[in-house]
Amino acid sequence: MGKANSSRAATINAANDSRERAFTPLRLRLVVPVTLLSLIMAPLLILPLVAIFFFAGRGGFPVFWKSFSGAESQFALRFSLLIATFTALINSILGTAVAYFLAKYRFPGKRPLSIVMNLPVAIPTVVVGTSLLLLWGPLGLLGQYLDPIGFRPMFAPIGVLMAHLFVTFPYMLGAVKPVLEEFEVTYEEAAYTMGAGPWKTFWYITLPALKGGLFAGTLLTFAHSLGEFGATVMVSGNLRLRTQTAPLYIFAQFEAGNISAANAVAAVLALISFIIFLILIRFSETEQKRLL
Amino acid sequence: MSILLENVTKRLVNHTVVDRINLTVKDREFFVLLGPSGSGKSTILRLIAGLTPLTSGKIFLHGHQVDHLPPQERGIGYVFQNYSLFRHMTVADNIEFGLRIRAVPPSERQRRREQLLEILGLGGYGDRFPCQLSGGQQQRVALARALAYSPDVLLLDEPFGALDVKIRAQLRESLKAIHQELGVTSILVTHDQEEAFELGDRIAVLEQGKLVEVGLPEELYQKPKTEYVASFLGTANLLRLWVSGAMVNLGQASLPLPPPFTSAAPSQVDVLIRPEDIELNSAQEKLTTTCLGYGEIKKVTPVGPGVKIRVTLKADQVEFRHALPPLPNLGVNVIYVVTSARAYAQEGFRPGHHVWLGIRNYHVLPYERTRVLLAIDGSAYQEYSLELGKALFPALQSEVDIIGIAERRSEQQKAQAGLVYAERVVSPAARRVRTLYRQGNAADMILGELEKAPYDLVMIGTRGRRAPTRFKVGSTAARVLQYSLTPILVIPAERKEIKNILICVTAGEPGRIAILQTGRMALKAQAKVTVLHVVSSGFGSPAAAKEAPVDEDGAKAQVDRALQLLTSNQINAVKKVRSGHTVEEILAEANSGNYDLVVTGAYLPYGHSSLLVDNFTTQILANIHVPMLVVRYKEGFPRSG
After folding, report:
1. Which of A84, A288, B465, B598 is a plausible cystine mate for A225, CB 3.0–4.6 Å?
2. Residues in chain A with pLDDT values less than 70
3. What's the CA gap between B520 and B368, in Å, rounded?
4. Smallest Cβ distance to A194: which of B50, B101, B155?
5. Are A158 and A239 in contact (CB under 8 A)?
6. Min distance B76 CA to chain A CA atoms (Å)
């Protein structure tokens, strides 16, 4: 009887609960801020994205395809993807090496160095571009000596790559370094005692542990490189079919009044970024689950 | 011999973590390094493994010198406290890792892996990831992983430290079984005595990076050679006793000294009585063993199958109190007794009952170490004390407590900086160094420490603000002497070594023990001893001389006895006789510049409640320019046979 009683009590309680929850004052109180927030966020974040796809699709698919498959837009997109791929690859190696060095060794000047390494995040990208020009450009600090030999990195694909490496470096470092810092030295030591040399230890033990950070860092770098504008516009000279990246193409077409051409590429860029973003979210969720 | 360490030393910037360790581990032996945290035991293991570079010394594994080799080439298996299993690999991959590195064919790897999983009771767990296992299982995997490639030596660094008691016991069992089956030479590092005793074929006890003692478990427990091991292992009743003849005076009992000790042995010994070697009875006649005395039961604590009883010995047994200065952690006159719970219940003892104590078994330890209290204040005298300390501490096997005293709050920083500095200077010379910071009057602070723990020597390197300039050093010392029986070393001048010692035996004659202690110090420092006898014309004033007529013949006999005692111990000693005013003559001889240390005695009037220092000692203290050791003595103390 006691059991029946208690179960009935539970049912009543549950009913009470749900009724209470429906009219809870907390819920009511939430309605106002949520609405306000949505009203502010919508024009800032959501609607612009909608607008891109709206304009890109306005002329129907033929118009989109024509703009998309044009030589210039094709070049710009492919060039951007190529640069982003190289940037991501080079920085994943460079970033890991630097992160390893910063996390494992103690040396004088380590703190200033790690601040400098992260500086590109704080500097406006246009300034980064300008500084690269002032160094490597034909009249730059180094460039004036390199120019006669024929090494002219500025206004060339290599210059774009340099700018992108510079700008995205901190993202890679930021993704890998914390993982390395948490990675206990005893794992490596355990491998040593079992006969694994430093390289084998890095390959079999350290690198697999870094996998997550490396993956996230590479994707972030790729995404940033794909959208990079400020430094690229300074360094590339915005030369059509030579150094024009997708964002530069969008800007140029927009300025020239070819809204539909700009929109087609913009939509594609937005889509790629969106996919990368989804992968990252998905990844970080599984990563968290794995750790729990 | 499987593992051989020769003078293995690891030094950090200003701290020696592992200090000249010599060790031999036999083939197939299970060896345990036991010590409290910070004793350097894990560092030794890391040095053997090659995970930490050696400062100096040699390491041999199976006859090959390995200290220059990287860890990969040493052929060791290492189990870490935090398991350090590779999280991205399955259990099977973890175990096979060492074999894969050695390019062992997959079939062979698999065979070995299955065998190890079977031995460790992990059958069927091969496909799991470390995060899917419990702590105990993870440590088993770590063990299997370290054993997979059949290393010559297995090193275990507190492997069970992070596990709960029950699993720990299970793992100990498995580890023991595995060791018997595979016979791999092993070293286990632990701070857990139970673990050490259960697993170790032999145990090495470490303290502050130094190897204190190595031996069989039961040997270390029952017959330790050092006070440290005696008190570190289990519960110890350690009593510091005087020897007379060939007997130790233990309360009401006189016990014969066991074989290694003879009557010429040190005049003071430590006697170890384990709690289970004490018999309790309600009447003295019913005791079946040598009676120690009686006391009151203060506290009863159940421990496993037995009970631990705290007995406070009766204070009216004056002999007892004088003869047994207990270790500080036991408190005054407290003895621990462990007896079976059933025996306890039968007797019907309760806290508050009075009981007689008998000794079933005892062990005598040489009393060799000296506990030194070094008082400093950041002044120039501190420098003198440290310099002398560096020379003295190795000879005295000193455990040094440095007390930094600031007389005012404003001097706190100076005193604390002085402490840090002093610790760094003294550490290499002492067996152990601790630092304490106190604020207040120097003498009061020193006396406070002397009350808390028994010291064998106080070194005073402070100025003493209240004193007039002329009495700077002496005043603190004199005040400490007023209230304490501990010998005091005052250092008003710089001495870097002790080569010449002056012992003044006239007037304030130091006792036999002081002479012997000084003698031992002289022997170790290879110093020359001069025994000074002043044919006195008085203590200070002619009037005083009349009041205390000097026994000329007695004094001469005393000098000769001292000389004989020293020379019989192979100490280079000579006699010197001066005549005149005692204080003046002693000061003249002491300050002549030939001596590094002057030893005098300060007479303690027997039966007086205060410990008044005679005028003689105070006068010398105030005017001496040489380090001076003042030993308090009392008529008939110690009672010599």
Report:
1. A84
2. 1-27, 288-292
3. 10
4. B101
5. no
6. 6
